[in-house]
Write a structure and sequence with these properties.
The protein has about 325 residues and is of the alpha/beta class. The chain has a domain at about 15-195 and about 230-265 and about 300-315: NAD(P)-binding Rossmann-like Domain (Rossmann fold), CATH 3.40.50. Helix content is about 40%, strand content about 15%. The strands form three sheets. A seven-stranded parallel beta sheet has the order 3-2-1-4-5-6-10, sandwiched between helices. The chain has a three-stranded mixed beta sheet with strand order 7-9-11. Strand 5, helix 7 (about 165-180) and strand 6 form a beta-alpha-beta unit. Helix 2 packs across helix 9 and helix 4 packs parallel to helix 6 (about 110-125). The chain starts with 11 loop residues before the first helix and ends with a helix. The model has no long low-confidence stretch (mean pLDDT about 95). InterPro entries: NAD(P)-bd_dom, NAD(P)-bd_dom_sf. GO terms for molecular function: GDP-mannose 4,6-dehydratase activity. This is GDP-mannose 4,6-dehydratase.
Length: about 325
């Protein structure tokens, strides 16, 4: 794993060496990549794992054997309080969530339980533990909802309506409440759509398209192809989480703040699929189904605050990230 974005004045290796880090959602796309990087930095990682996912990159490459695994649910208050206390956690990075929009549309309550209740229960465990010195929580660009003034900036009001979007807006506000009301050292990330090797949610546009092309099948676009999104490569996302935690440790005035992270390269769904097809030298015609619901037409972020306040910048352009991602999936699918 390439470690990107080390702000001036921060000795990244020294900061993370032997640091007790609690990672939720560690078996997901970003969680797996983040955990591997933390281990490379010689941090002492404790991972909360609810379901055993054999296909997870963290499991397949054996990385999970190098971390302390706490089995349980993010909604289990007693478990979270115990884990933070017994493992003397210093840094909490909260990635666990139900992240699939169609699932949220079909099962809003389970999404809200995981994304909203899970967040306040983790923050409450942090409030009760004086050893926790940094808490980084993953929100989303979806928390902003549909607005006319784009790109989103951190002072754009959160106007989410749809189930997944509302869950992220609520958890975002709860994090700010814990920071400002109780002094919990929590800050929030708002990122665009993640992509990279290791994402096994095949209904997402990047892994789904690559798998279809490898199989010689038409890639599916479940929207009408015009939805515009920001995309951020997984290694840049890892750099964002590390950077925010490092800065939060030295600047307590950042508690309660939110930061957008984006490459600034927005794409429609059809443009992104065509870009992948080009990199894979495929002439397959996408299957545009126009069946997506509860989706915001245009979403993209302004990451000026993260660049100027945190010293963060992306290390990968969209095409470079896509090429690395395609290579990972080719190897994965051939092995499978």
């Amino acid at each position: 794993m390439t470690i990107t974005t080390q702000p001036a004045g921060v000795d990244r290796k020294a900061f993370w060496r032997d640091r007790r880090v609690f990672v939720t959602g560690a078996t997901g796309l970003v969680g797996s990549a983040l955990t591997r990087t933390l281990l490379d930095l010689r941090a002492d990682v404790v991972a909360l794992v609810r379901d055993w996912v054999p296909g997870s990159a963290l499991v397949k490459d054996g990385t999970i054997e190098r971390v302390t695994v706490v089995r349980g649910d993010i909604r289990d208050q007693e478990l979270l309080t115990r884990a933070l206390a017994e493992y003397e956690i210093a840094t909490v990075i909260h990635l666990a969530a139900q992240t699939i929009v169609p699932i949220a549309n079909r099962n809003p309550v389970s999404t809200w339980e995981s994304n909203i209740a899970g967040t306040w229960r983790l923050l409450e465990a942090c409030r009760l533990n004086p050893k926790v010195s940094e808490v980084v929580l993953a929100s989303s660009d979806k928390a902003y909802g549909e607005v006319t003034d784009l790109p989103y900036r951190e002072d754009t009001p959160l106007q989410a309506v749809f189930p997944y979007d509302a869950s992220k807006a609520c958890s975002d506000i709860i994090a700010k409440s814990y920071a400002r009301s109780f002094g919990v050292p929590a800050a929030v990330t708002r990122c665009g759509n993640f992509f990279g090797g290791g994402d096994l949610n095949w209904n997402r546009i990047v892994p789904g398209t690559v798998r279809s092309v490898v199989r010689g099948e038409r890639p599916v676009i479940r929207s009408d192809g015009t939805l515009v999104r920001d995309y951020i490569y997984v290694e840049d996302a890892v750099g964002a989480y590390l950077t925010l935690a490092e800065q939060l440790a030295h600047r307590k005035d950042l508690a309660g703040e939110a930061f957008n992270f984006s490459t600034g390269e927005r794409q429609s769904a059809r443009e992104l699929v065509d870009r992948i097809l080009g990199h894979m030298t495929s002439n397959l015609d996408p299957d545009v189904r126009n069946e997506a619901s509860n989706e915001i037409p245009h979403q993209y972020l302004d990451a000026t605050k993260a660049r100027e306040t945190l010293g963060w910048k992306p290390g990968f352009g969209l095409d470079e990230g896509l090429k690395k991602t395609i290579g990972w999936y080719r190897d994965y699918l051939e092995a499978a």
